[in-house]
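Quick start: what a row looks like.
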Amino acid sequence: MAVLPIRKVPDPVLRQRAKRVTSFDAALRRLVDDMIDTMRWARGVGIAGNQVGVPLRVCVIEIPEEEGRVRVLINPEVVSRSGTRELEEGCLSYPGYRGNTVRSERITVRAMDLRGRTFTIKAEDDLLTHALEHETDHLNGVIYLDRLTSKDAIWTMTEPEPAAAQAAGE
């Protein structure tokens, strides 16, 4: 397993819509393991394939309060979302900044596991809701800057911030 370089804005891979995974093999398992290592090293909540330069529809999420429970989502698609809420957000691909964004209150995502089995995950008004939307956005070439409440709703962190705090929702 390895820590992969995290791509930063304005790297064009972050704006690409990631491609569907079609092979559920050892290479995919190795990529997921490396993504988990990278996310943990950066002290993030989640990371998407294109953030590590691999434009495949793969993301991993680990909510801090659920330490050790990593959600692996292959080919995730948002099935439904409803409600809105304003949140403070950051991103591993845009370190040192935070911004106010509008996100959904409820979200349902359909995805596959590492064996290619389909499952559905629902979340409501919590960090998982935020992370699911943030990571599926990444896989669609959307970054949180696109979700700012206004062009002025972003600020530079005044002191060094742990990566985990930078990555709220990620």
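That is the whole record. The beta strands are 46-48, 58-61, 71-82, 85-89, 97-103, 106-112, 118-124, 154-156. The first helix runs from residue 26 to 41.
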